[in-house]
Amino acid sequence: MMTIDEKDQKTLFDRSVYISKEIQAALPSSYLIRPLRRDDDERGFVELLSQLSIVGSITQESFRDRFDLLKQQGSTYIIVIEEDNKIVASATLLVEYKFLRKCGIVGHIEDVVVHDSQRGKKLGIRLIDQLHYIAQAVKCYKTILNCNEKNISFYEKCFLKKTDVQMTRYF
């Protein structure tokens, strides 16, 4: 049997520091919010992301290599919600270290996705709440999120407000 310490070595970040007990308690009892694990490709993480955007073919080796890189860098916080050993929701906080605002820190919220079979259970709100919890823990002065026009009302429910304009150039 794997100990808690061994399990934590396989997570992207330390659950005991960065996962809110209050947010966990707000989820249905069979759901667990936690950091991404090195073997979550086996729990449907990649398939879940494909409901959000183009993922492409990711081998187990490339998944684990990318996980190891993100863990080593220490500025990416990917959280998942698991139910019955299956990933049903996920979101990412990217931490940017700046010179502005006295060497401040900004959190970028990315890749928010709830499996289409799980929508309507407030999992998306819990994901955003959890990312804001992490952002405060790492001392971000703000979080930023880009979204489609159709998603604005959802994010406003999460206490985000529409500001500025996003410009994009794809390569």
From TrEMBL:
Class in the EC hierarchy, top level: transferase
Keywords for the protein's UniProt record, in alphabetical order: Acyltransferase, Endoplasmic reticulum, Membrane, Transferase
Name under which the protein is recorded: Glucosamine 6-phosphate N-acetyltransferase
Family: Belongs to the acetyltransferase family. GNA1 subfamily.
GO biological process annotation, one example: UDP-N-acetylglucosamine biosynthetic process
Cellular localisation: Endomembrane system; Endoplasmic reticulum membrane
One Pfam family from the record: Acetyltransf_1
Organism: Mucor ambiguus
